[in-house]
Amino acid sequence: MLVPPPAYAAAFANAKSVIDRHPPLLEQVTLLSFMRSGQFAAHIRRMRRIYRERQTILVEEITRHMGDIVHMEPSDAGVHLIGTLKDGRDDRAFCAGARACGILLRPLSDTYLGPPARQGVLFGFAAIPPRRIITAVRRLADYARNDGAG
Fold first, then answer.
1. What's the CA gap between 97 and 144, in Å, rounded?
2. How many CB atoms within 10 Å of residue 76?
3. For 49-145, CATH number?
């Protein structure tokens, strides 16, 4: 649901009517039932715990195996972390090499409109089970130390 400022309410209502004439009523009723039952809050608590565990494992493994190459920045929100490349590596080349190893990362420089302020990597962790995070970080560390040496 969106509650725009009063000055923009009419514009938002017009845009909504053009984009979506028929709201998904069945999905809305189902979500309402899910929320009223208390299961939604339980689901949110469970997912926060899972994401916290995965983020902790990612930070620990990167720090343990690649701490001299990547500095991880833990976060209290979101499902991605920023890893800053320490040794002047090009983040696009680093991510391309990681992709060749079967690891999908996004270069931080892609998020800048102008010249990148720093070279880094966006690490997603939400959909990756802990064992796969550990395996992927070790594979990434091997690549970074051998094939992807700055």
1. 8
2. 6
3. 3.90.1150.10
Positive or negative CA dihedral for 41, 43, 45, 51?
negative
The tens digit of pLDDT for each residue in 6-54 reads 999 899 888 887 887 777 889 999 999 999 999 999 999 999 999 999 9
* Helical spans, DSSP H, in 37-113: 39-66, 91-100
Residue 62: beta bridge partners? none
- Tokens found for residue 84: 């800053």
What is the model's pTM? 0.79
Q: Is residue 85 within 8 Å of residue 149, measured between CB atoms? A: no
| All structural domains of the chain with their residue ranges | 49-145
Q: Three-state SS for 68? A: coil
* Alpha carbons 122 and 116: distance in angstroms, whole number: 14
- Residue positions counted in the chain: 150
Residue 135 to residue 130: CA distance in whole angstroms: 9
Q: Tell me how crowded residue 134 is: count the other CB atoms within 10 A of its CB.
A: 17
Determine the residue type at 51.
Y
Single out the residue of 121, 20, 3 nearest to residue 71, CA to CA.
121
